[in-house]
């Protein structure tokens, strides 16, 4: 079951990663989002971001519901495996960069980790507050 859950999690992230990557060596024409080719208005862009955010949240909630059904040891093993895989990919990505790019990459990573920590702290505070109510 653990392998199935991991495979599902991995497979669900591939389309987003693939859509963000440039096609067939078109590195000179980098696109920030897959929707740039659609020439969306600002309102459409805003709505697209909102819908994508909602979809990501729903995906997390559904995934968490199934993860909660796993025994604690299985969840821990999965988290460890995912963390290891993420660290490996992070290192591979960093190794592709020039030294000055690595510095910028490291700064971006620090900022993301700080935001992630803030979000986790807020979720914990909110859960504790909700339990008191």
UniProtKB/TrEMBL annotation:
GO molecular function terms listed in the Swiss-Prot or TrEMBL record: unfolded protein binding
Domain of life of the source: Bacteria
Signal peptide start-end: 1-20
InterPro entries listed in its UniProt record: Cpx_auxiliary_protein (IPR052211), LTXXQ (IPR012899)
Residue ranges with Basic and acidic residues bias: 92-133
Compartments in which it is found: Periplasm
Keywords attached to this entry: Periplasm, Signal
Residue segments, region Disordered: 74-133
Gene Ontology CC terms: outer membrane-bounded periplasmic space
Entry-linked Pfam families: LTXXQ
Coarse class of the protein's main subcellular location: periplasm
Similarity field: Belongs to the CpxP/Spy family.
UniProt protein name: LTXXQ domain protein
Taxonomic source organism: Stutzerimonas stutzeri
Lineage: Bacteria, Pseudomonadati, Pseudomonadota, Gammaproteobacteria, Pseudomonadales
